[in-house]
Amino acid sequence: MHAKANQMLEETRHRPWKLPEGKWQYDQEWNEVLFFHWKVPAQLLKPLIPSGLELDHFEGEAWVSLVPFSMQKICPSGLPPLSFLSDFHEINWRTYVIADHKPGVYFLNIEAQKQLSVWIAKLLSGLPYEKASISRGSNTYHSINKRKGFNLDIEFEVKAPIVLKSKLDQWLTERYALYLEQGKRLFRYEIHHLEWQIAHMELKKSTIKYQINNLNLSNRPPDLLHYSPGVKVLAWARKEIKR
């Protein structure tokens, strides 16, 4: 992985700011990624965003995205991945924020397939992982979170690659920071990967039931869809942000 990581670190033209200082701490793969994007009223999101973060807008509009994918080969730098821990299906529900002129994402919820992986991920990262029953096929993805009443049941078809990305395509996908509130502290994880390769996607069947407070995506068709075969990702240690 180190040879591939070094090659990745040489490719930075697509990044909005320079690489973080110091050595990256984790590498991982986000594979077979599905992106479901919705425009939402900013007033529904603001109560869910920690102080110290500002909602990021595209042409005056706020967005949220539901992102089902398969996490693979996640491991600390210098150690081999253990598939029974490092490989699992995941769904994150995110919105778009900015702090210190660095746009990134803030996770409203993260679901993962394996209980042990959830426990370790929460312990090491602090991110809001929780267990859900998740399975996927070549063109299907299914998840049930009984505790929160979340449900995703979709059948999809990948269409033509997007060769010329729109500004919105790039704004939604090219994010190089993850933000986290833990207790009374606010943190940023910086990441690096090559530019996303994305394609059009069509939903053949869709049941989507996700709601937090008044933010409700249930059975509402996404405003935009993307598919990507995935990216390899390097992640640096988190740093605290002063509010």
TrEMBL record:
SUPFAM superfamilies found in the cross-reference section: Acetoacetate decarboxylase-like
Pfam family, any one: DUF2071
InterPro entries: ADC_dom_sf, DUF2071
Domain of life: Bacteria
Protein name: DUF2071 domain-containing protein
